[in-house]
Amino acid sequence: MKLGMMFRDVSTSLLRRPVTEKYPFERREPPDRLRGKLIWNPEACIGCGLCEKDCPAHAIEVFVVDREEKRFVLTYHPDRCTFCAQCVISCRHGCLELSNQEWELAALNRSPFTIHYGNENDVQLVLAEQSLSDDSKAEIDRD
Ligand code: SF4
Ligand code: SF4
User: Fold this and answer.
1) Is the peptide bond before 18 cis (omega within 30 degrees of 0)?
2) N or C terminus: fewer CB in 10 A for the chain?
3) pTM of this structure
4) In 1-143, where do the E strands start and end?
5) Closest C-alpha to ligand 2, atom 6
6) What is the domain partition of the chain in residue ranges?
7) 101-129 pLDDT, tens per residue?
8) What gap in Å lies between CA 27 and CA 23, rounded to an integer?
9) 73 lines ligand 2 (CB under 6 A)
10) pLDDT attached to residue 19
């Protein structure tokens, strides 16, 4: 590059506004089709488990607490999710969507990577059952 051209480029750049975005202090509106965190709408869910079965990343678990009363818990692991949207396609009841608003999913510890959707009491029931089954697995391992 010739010296004259270099000076011209430098002086032009000095007069321009920076193109670097000041994220996270300034944010753009995310694109409509951005695939962020999986959101579950329990209203139409029938607990069929298709989303869990079809998820290639094992990022979803569906627990049926009471099918007749339509009490289900859906556990989502964003750290396993590849945002492929297969679960959204598989759900015939339109209960799942990948949010274009909730996409900042990085964290400094693992706790935000297990999300339990559902009624709080049902979630506690599922967690208690899981902890019981973990205990019995540990017993079997010791035997
Ligand atoms: S978007 Fe893909 S990887 Fe994520 S939960 Fe749905 S099916 Fe699984
Ligand atoms: S596929 Fe849809 S209806 Fe079936 S368990 Fe998943 S969210 Fe519920």
Assistant:
1) no
2) C
3) 0.83
4) 38-40, 60-66, 71-76, 96-98, 115-117
5) 51
6) 38-142
7) 999 999 999 999 999 999 999 999 999 99
8) 6
9) no
10) 82
